[in-house]
Amino acid sequence: MAIKKSELYSSLWKSCDELRGGMDASQYKDYVLVLLFVKYVSDKYAGVADALIEVPEGGGFQDIVAFKGQKDIGDGINKIITKLAEANDLVGIITVADFNDADKLGKGKEMQDRLSNLVAIFETPALNFSKNRADGDDILGDAYEYLMRNFATQSGKSKGQFYTPAEVSRVISQVIGVNSAQSQSQTIYDPTCGSGSLLLKSADEAERGLTIYGQEMDNATRALARMNMILHGHPTAEIWQDNTLSSPYFKDADGSLKTFDFAVANPPFSSKAWSNGLDPAKDEFKRFDNYGIPPAKNGDYAFLLHMVRSLKSNGKGAIILPRGVLFRGNAEAEIRKNLISKGIIKGIIGLPPNLFYGTGIPACIIVLDKENAENRQGIFMIDASKGFVKDGNKNRLREQDIHKIVDVFNKQLEVAKYSRMVPVQEIEGHEYNLNIPRYIDSQEEEDIQDIEAHLLGGIPKRDVQALSDYWQVYPTLQQELFEAANRPGYLMLKIPGSEVKSCIFSHPEFISYRKDIQAVFETWQGKHTPLLKAIQPGDKPKAIIYALSEDVLQAFTGKSLIDKYDVYQHLMTYWVESMKDDVYILVEDGWKAELTAVTNKKGAVTDYVCELIPKELMINRYFKTEQAAIATLETKKDEIVRQQEELQEEHGGEEGLLEEVTNDSGKITKANINLRIKEIQKNPLFADADELKVLKSYLKLIESEAELNKEIKEATQSLHNQVLKKYQELTEDEIKTLVVDDKWMQTLRQAIASEMDRISQRLTQRIKELAERYDMPLPELTSRVEELTAKVEGHLKKMGMVW
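Above: the chain's sequence. Below: its structure in token form.
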């Protein structure tokens, strides 16, 4: 059975637990990623003729497994990895981690156990990459990205810069038009490539592929990039280790810088030592000619100008830089003016703060395009700083944020408070300052308090008119909620504030709108249900979700009140949380409802579960009657328990009729009641008839509860057995109905309904807020204060207080 991707990720992360303590994440990532690499190439290429990677004898993962439990396991692993490295020109790439380092891995038995446990995790059948059919979805590459992201998170402020968040990489790759590449011979370059994540995400956008070039100054990080390229299916990518600014590696035959079709970069922000080994005034590659030399202590523009020089005459690129490059003065202002004058900057995208590992400062994407630069009359700007979600101690772009940025940029759409095309002439008027707030006012409208309304009452008409988006969809609702006040420009709420919600939710226009939106979803559902039920082994999950998500955006485009990107996000969130795992199971194993045994700590089977079809789905479709019968029994039991509580409340406590049968824990037991009844029956002359009556009533309730518990247990076990039997009898069509109709589509339908509720809740909340704000005008407040003051003074005088 195919492992869920989420379980794959967690098992990989578990491997890191074996290494924590002796080193931090910036170090143990080398061990985990090297083992992952060896496991992958061994599964994929061992014994395969003419394979991209040669797995020599004595140089594969199974050779490492043979060292489990051995005293010399560390030295053994080193030798095996060296063999693999030497056979594939990967020395210095996969030999960066010393598996025999006692300082990091412990001495003697500690190292032996730690490495044996680590190897055992990678040995699990769940990590058998040779059986992965969904190659186009790059399950291994995704796992590598997962590890890299977590390593970056845990590596601390100064050590996480090797990784560019995948979400930002996706934005960059799509706004520079990589998907327009026509052949594998076209090139993409990253002068500060880190672990290669930005390069890979960009190259993946090209349907026919691209030739990849990258340079990275740190040798260990360059090793990550080389492994990353191989694991993602780009073994021929050229990744060089050296300082890009002082010693750029990629050059043409005449010694000039090699130029590329596309370039991307996320360089170290504001590098103070950028000119080490370089005389900028005599730069042999003429990167600063006609632009200006960046400040000696800030290298942001040095990397940008290197990129400009590295692009072909029609090349396109994007670079991530701190927002200060948009407005800082002096030398940078002159460079900025020259870049704008030459038309090289196509666009600027302002990003949210705290996205990147290693820095929390706000950054931006500067999009470069040399094609037709001399005729460029403006710069397209986007302020995307408010679109994100909190993710631990970082912020992260959501799927809807990514899609919106890309849509708006590529279509050059002007959206209020979000984006606009800024003419160069306007920028010149601001002395070539590119600070986004100068051109896009993204601030929310201030909620103005109305002094007259506070004094005289009423709701300002302008506040009600500001809700015009709602009144266009619900044209008569406004008249049902508001009426004219006793003076022009103000309205009064017709109904109590507590009834606003029910008035809106029951209004015919709201109900009609809800049905219209539901119909849009049902049309989308009708179109895609047959396609989803046609999923078969070998299909590509990423292609499936792409088709679903793009069409849901199209379906909800232009619909009033509801934001198509919010609907899109519901789908993408469900995809990540659940649906993706389901689809991976289907493309690996087909439409099978396989049961997996659940065991306790002793290894005994306690239950069976089906990852694809939870029991609740089976019960809701096939066993509603049985479930309802159990629910009825539960209700009867709850009533019995309630009656017990009433009797205990009435007759418990000191000198109560149930005091003698209540134990020290405050509980009444059947044994205590029977014992007390026997005592009473032995002495009938002294018996309290009321006590005996209450005791017998309580005893009857206990017996009824016990009988109900027995019935519930038997009915539950019977239902459980029926469900397990039904799992084994399910036809393929029944499985498709359960998964597609009952699970996926029902969940998405509920998400749409929640979005509708959210929309109307916002209207409800705003109306109630306005009503409460101006509910009691100042004269009434003053009068009420005077009234209460008089009452207090009267009470004080009665108490003898004089002042």
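The longest helix spans residues 732-773.
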